[in-house]
Amino acid sequence: MQYKRKESFRYTFTEPCKATFRLIKDAHGLTEKEISNKGICEIIDISPHGLKIFTEFSIAIDKQIHVEINFTLDESPIDLVGEFVWSHRKINGYEYGINLPEDTYTEQFIINELKNVRRKSLDMRK
For the segment 92-107, what is each residue's pLDDT rounded down to a tens digit? Predict the structure, then answer.
């Protein structure tokens, strides 16, 4: 795994964030061709450029490298298309690293949602 020195930050959830995913065949074409039904996963950590998920499903990432992830951090639903970069077998499932394409709007949106989540968690402690 390559270390990204320019990565602004990575937020690790105390409780994983629930999400759904589906594998897609062509993320760069005019139409996205679905090749799987939706599956359930948990987001372990996230940054503006990628995320780490956990699921019970084994995915052949060398064959199917694009994935659509749907989740909500604070209030707004987020739909992202990313690319698998690595996988690790765990006792009761698999962890996957997903790289997100560079998109300034999406990066800023993720940062703002994470700030809201953090503020709310700090307010609950008071």
Answer: 999 999 999 888 898 8
- Phi, psi at 61, each rounded to 5°: -70, -15
Q: What is the pLDDT of residues 40-89, one digit of tens each?
A: 999 999 998 999 999 999 988 887 678 999 999 888 899 999 999 999 99
User: What is the model's pTM?
Assistant: 0.82
Please tell me whether residue 25 adopts helix, strand or coil conformation: coil
CA atoms of 34 and 22, how far apart (whole Å): 7
What percent of the chain is helix, strand and coil (3-state, nearest 5)?
A: 15, 45, 35
Alpha carbon 116 to its chain centroid, in Å, reads 18
Domain ranges for the chain: 11-125
Phi, then psi, of 19 in degrees rounded to 5: -155, 165
Only one residue has tokens 């052949």, namely 60
- Superfamily, domain 11-125: predicted glycosyltransferase like domains (2.40.10.220)
